[in-house]
Design a protein that fits this description.
Number of helices: 20
Radius of gyration: 32 Å
Structural class: alpha/beta
Helix content: 40-55%
Number of strands: 15
Distance between the termini: 68 Å
Strand content: 5-15%
Largest sheet: 5 strands, mixed
Protein name: Transcriptional regulator, PucR family
Number of domains: 4
Region (Disordered): 326-346
Domain Purine catabolism PurC-like: 5-119
Pfam families: HTH_30, PucR
Organism: Actinosynnema mirum (strain ATCC 29888 / DSM 43827 / JCM 3225 / NBRC 14064 / NCIMB 13271 / NRRL B-12336 / IMRU 3971 / 101)
């Protein structure tokens, strides 16, 4: 029984003076009192009946209302027999502390009100038990059936939404309304909450990648709504178990995408993906290294709910991008020598960053340790002095349409849930299964480009990447490594033996189109010093950097690393 139910009983004729927003509070009993502080005699949830005999002055109202709220009373029903309307000071005091105030007609006794409450509670117990049994039975019949039964029990439409605005179950709702519900959910100071006549309840707990239950009409504290949310949490746990199993099954495919150890087409077929139909690779990173995989899974749920997905180590192509809350050792090494302009659509790893990534565990091993990091609650910061886990979530999609518009919309909806974190997404061009490794590289390059743009939530597609990087993505890993070693080997060896950074000088010189003054300014060295360094590069590599074809060869070799 709710406070609002009392107002719908024609024989009582109660009138709400305050508290239209709080009429969904449950009533557990009725108690009559004329004490100035009745709090110690209340258990919580009662409808308190009072003839206001305690009222001597307006100053008495605020302490009385505060005492009721402190004891957990659901509402105050008051009457002043023969004395006219309720004091304005009492109305204001109840409004200030959030206590519904109901006015009892003079010809209706408190005994009649209390008796009606007792009868309703006694009769409602059997109805609640029957409703509980129907809900529990529906829990074994699927998510849509559970939500439909819950809506019937509550007498109001119910919807389950993800924090990305995806309608998980329930009647359709415009995307703008779903996004508004997600914002209201994360703006609410406490949950459950009733916002604009919609009850918002957490499914298990409020989190970055969780579900929420939205009930029309404001049933935030209705026991049936609370039970429905609990049963939905069991369904959510089942979905998470299925995703965890799918993640384990996807490990061989992810290893094939990120290393040369296996054939991507064979592993894609084993994962149930077609060989001759377009496939896409989607990569996602978060600024604190947390929730990357569950967030990617939530974003893809309406597009490809069974897409193979998992975590892999951050690769050399993205090791230097500024997306970590705390820099890793590889990131620090990269930042020490990175001088590429922010508008450039590429990100160059240093030798130190490349070595750090090559020393990382296989995707399967990384997935196990990284999963612990992503399981940390979104509100938990990384320990002081420690770097965020350098992981990327990757998924392979079999979809005939470009997912990037839907991903952008979902990320915009999820912004309130991200607690200020950056989320970057890279989407490859469609390819056949045999070319998935190149698509994975392209998705990571798109991720690097997203990092350079600086937005909190950014989605970049393969079509936005410079053509030379797309060409390199189609070249086998070993061929790219051979190209880099053949053209840059003497320079790499010299830097490693002497502790110099002639490779960095070459990179900046090419970035500046061979301009001596611009390069010297970028490196903060004298032009004569720069000429000496470039001369050493030409001597070690046997090239002439005034020739355009030599510059192109070396530029591609740098990109191939």
């Amino acid at each position: 029984m709710l406070v609002g139910d009392l107002l719908r009983m024609p024989d009582l004729r109660l009138r709400a003076r305050t508290g239209d927003r709080w009429l969904d509070r449950p009533v557990t009993g009725a108690r009559t009192t004329e004490l100035t502080d009745p709090g110690r005699y209340l258990d919580g949830g009662e409808l308190v009946l009072s003839g206001l005999h305690w009222h001597r002055a307006d100053a008495d109202c605020a302490p009385f209302a505060s005492a009721l709220v402190g004891a957990g009373a659901s509402a105050l029903a008051a009457s002043r027999a023969g004395a006219g309307e309720l004091p304005d000071a009492l109305v204001a005091a109840c409004l200030a502390v959030g206590l519904p105030l109901l006015e009892v007609p003079e010809d209706v006794s408190f005994g009649a009100v209390a008796e009606r409450v007792v009868l309703e509670l006694a009769g409602g117990a059997g109805a609640r038990l029957a409703g509980h049994r129907r809900l529990v039975a529906a829990a074994g019949e699927g998510l849509e059936r559970l939500v439909a039964v819950g809506a019937a029990e509550l007498g109001a439409p119910c919807r389950v939404l993800s924090t990305t605005g995806h309608l998980v179950a329930g009647p359709d709702l415009p995307q703008e309304r779903r996004a508004a519900l997600v914002r209201d959910y994360f703006d609410a100071e406490r949950l459950p909450a009733a916002v604009r006549r919609t009850a918002l309840l957490p499914v298990r707990a409020r989190s970055t990648t969780g579900w929420l239950l939205a009930v029309d009409g404001g049933h935030a504290h209705d026991p049936t709504a609370l039970e429905l949310a609990d049963l939905l949490a069991l369904e959510r746990a089942r979905v998470l178990r299925e995703r965890a199993a799918a993640t384990r099954a996807a490990t061989p495919l992810l290893r094939a995408l990120t290393t040369a150890a296996d054939d991507p087409a064979t592993r894609a077929a084993a994962a149930g993906l077609p060989e001759d139909e377009p496939l896409l690779v989607v990569a996602l990173s978060t600024s604190d290294g947390q929730d990357a995989l569950p967030l990617l899974e939530e974003l893809l749920a309406p597009l490809a709910p069974n897409a193979p997905a998992g975590l892999v180590a951050t690769t050399a192509a993205t090791a230097g991008t500024p997306i970590a809350a705390a820099p890793t050792a590889a990131t620090k090494a990269t930042k020490a020598t990175a001088t590429r302009p922010a508008t450039t659509a590429t990100a160059q790893p240093t030798a130190a960053a490349t070595a750090a990534v090559k020393a990382a565990a296989s995707p399967a091993a990384v997935s196990a340790s990284a999963a612990k990091a992503t399981a940390t609650p979104a509100s938990a910061p990384a320990p002081a002095g420690k770097a965020a886990t350098p992981v990327t979530a990757i998924a392979v999609l079999h979809t005939p349409t470009d997912p990037s518009p839907a991903l952008r919309q979902a990320l915009r909806t999820a912004l309130p849930a991200l607690s200020g974190r950056r989320v970057l997404v890279g989407v490859s061009s469609p390819v056949r299964a045999a070319a998935l490794r190149g698509a994975a590289q392209e998705a990571r390059w798109a991720l690097a480009l997203a990092a350079e743009r600086g937005a909190r939530a950014e989605v970049v597609t393969g079509a936005e990447i410079a053509p030379h990087r797309l060409l390199l993505a189609a070249v086998p890993d070993q061929a790219r490594a051979d190209l880099r070693r053949r053209l840059l080997g003497p320079l790499l060896d010299h830097d490693a033996a002497r502790g110099t950074d002639l490779l960095g000088t070459l990179r900046v010189f090419l970035d500046c189109s061979g301009s001596w003054t611009t390069t010297a300014a970028r490196l903060h060295v004298h032009v004569n010093t720069l000429r000496y360094r470039v001369g050493r590069v030409e001597e070690l590599l046997g090239v002439d950097l005034s020739r355009f074809d030599h510059r192109v060869d070396l530029f591609l070799a740098l990109q191939a690393g």
